[in-house]
Prior knowledge:
Signal peptide: 1-16
Organism: Lophiostoma macrostomum CBS 122681
Strand content: 25-35%
CATH architecture: Sandwich
Radius of gyration: 14 Å
CATH class: Mainly Beta
CATH superfamily: Crystallins
Protein name: AA1-like domain-containing protein
CATH topology: Gamma-B Crystallin, domain 1
Keywords: Signal
Shape: globular
Number of domains: 1
Amino acid sequence: xxxxxxxxxxxxxxxxxxxxxxxxxxxxxxxxxxxxxxxxxxxxxxxxxxxxxxxxxxxxxxxxxxxxxxxxxxxxxxxxxxxxxxxxxxxxxxxxxxxxxxxxxxxxxxxxxxxxxxxxxxxxxxxxxxxxxxxxxxxxxxxxxxxx
Length: 148
């Protein structure tokens, strides 16, 4: 599926203000696994973190045209499902050594990230992401769906 078609398809099921467990996207092509926030402590603008069911897809955070309030960078996340996501400081899931990246294993609430002064600008969620080397990993912990 082409990237423009991907965004159009996601737009049909996306919410303006996503919150964990509240009408999360779930259809044959895409599944929401959590929420990403513009600020630490689950504050600011937010988007649903989605997983493509047909494989790993890179999602640049700034390219969510159906959400006028989409964050530019991610500074906190809540992963509500037992899924794995990698957050990248680079725009196109760039895992260049000069960029920070972190593997987050859900379910977990991450109110802030160490060594992420600029936040994260793209992400991939899926089963195969563990094969991508990251700077560090955040493992499953308690998850509170009412935090946001």
